[in-house]
TrEMBL record:
Name listed for the protein in its UniProt record: Guanine nucleotide exchange factor for Rab-3A isoform X2
Organism this protein belongs to: Lipotes vexillifer
Record-level Gene Ontology MF annotations: guanyl-nucleotide exchange factor activity
Keywords, comma-separated and alphabetical: Coiled coil
Region (Disordered): 38-100
Length: 354
């Protein structure tokens, strides 16, 4: 084989895409070192690799002699206008670009998915932070309420304990007082006149206001009679009868200023003279007997004596009507106290407000 021929022939002459494109006129090549572009359709001339063109013939030097970069300028205008079908080389190039576009779409989808995941993760983190914050607030509120409940329970327990202690204290004091009263009563039983107590027990079995009973006959003789024995005997008898019948009325005199002068210098007026004792004094009360319209002005001393007797009769009437539910001894001591008040009033001892 000729060495020159072997050097000029292309090993992939029948399969080289560059050769096929140049042969069909789809691609034009213009070396950068030449002033004028090659014109004409390379497909119109036979491509003979056996003979090399000479420079004086106007052909470019061999490709191996002039290394220049190749640049695809695309098909000529005539080819675009003629509506020629794209060569298999163009289809092969388009087929090569489809996988790249697919990879680009996949990358875009992956980036969009990652962005959505990041945003979703940030949103979930924010919601989790809010939920944790609300949970902390609720926990703090629960702790506060637990403390308040514990404090209320402690206060309630302390209050209950103090109330029980106070109740027990009151019960102890009441028991002590009751025991002291019972002791005093036992001690005084020996000092009580057994005759008076026996008379009271006999009267208590069938209480009555009849003066024929030994008990009331003694009280009339020793206390009621002397307490209602005034200077004006006639009016005193009427007052005594009204007290026994419970028809006597005592009422205060209307408020008025009485002249502060000597009695001898004042005309005889009813408000300055006691109708029972006949003594000149400021009378602040008056009595009315039964349904009579007459009023009698009385002194504070006379009022105290009448009031003491009325209190005694009121109590024995309560006993007669069954309103006093006590044992015989407490009743007897109360009657003794009322008799004491009648004796003091008879002697002139009475409260100043009377």
């Amino acid at each position: 084989m000729d060495p020159a021929k072997e050097r000029t022939e292309c090993p992939a002459r029948e399969k080289c895409p560059v050769f096929l494109a140049m042969s069909s006129g789809t691609v034009r090549y213009a070396p950068s070192g030449l002033g004028l572009a090659l014109k004409g359709n390379l497909g119109e001339q036979s491509w003979d690799t056996d003979s090399q063109p000479h420079p004086d013939e106007g052909h470019p030097p061999p490709l191996e002699a002039v290394p220049v970069p190749w640049k695809s300028v695309g098909p000529c205008k005539s080819h675009r206008d003629s509506g020629l079908v794209e060569t298999p080389a163009g289809k092969e190039a388009q087929g090569e670009e489809d996988p790249a576009a697919t990879r680009l779409d996949v990358l875009r989808l992956r980036s969009s998915s990652m962005e959505i995941r990041e945003k979703g993760s940030e949103f979930l983190k924010e919601e989790l932070h809010k939920a944790q914050k609300e949970l902390k607030l609720k926990d703090a509120e629960c702790e506060r309420l637990c403390r308040v409940r514990g404090q209320l329970e402690r206060e309630l327990e302390e209050l209950t304990a103090s109330l029980f202690e106070e109740a027990h204290k009151m019960v102890r004091e009441a028991n002590m007082k009751q025991a002291a009263s019972e002791k005093q009563l036992k001690e005084t039983r020996g000092k009580v006149d057994t005759t008076l107590f026996a008379e009271f027990q006999a009267w208590r079995e069938s209480p009555t206001l009849d003066k024929t009973s030994p008990f009331l006959e003694r009280v009339y003789r020793e206390d009621v009679g002397p307490c209602l024995d005034f200077t004006m005997q006639e009016l005193s008898a009427l007052v005594r009868a009204a007290v026994e019948d419970n028809t006597l009325t005592i009422e205060p005199v209307a408020s008025q200023t009485l002249p502060a002068v000597k009695v001898a210098a004042v005309e005889c007026g009813r408000t300055n003279t006691c109708a029972l004792s006949g003594l000149a004094c400021a009378c602040r009360h008056r009595i009315r007997l039964g349904d009579s319209e007459s009023h009698y002005y009385i002194s504070p001393s006379s009022r105290a004596r009448i009031t003491a007797v009325c209190n005694f009769f009121t109590y024995i009437r309560y006993i007669q009507q069954g309103l006093v539910r006590q044992d015989a001894e407490p009743m007897f001591w109360e009657i003794t106290r009322l008799r004491k008040e009648m004796s003091l009033a008879k002697l002139g001892f009475f409260p100043q407000e009377a």
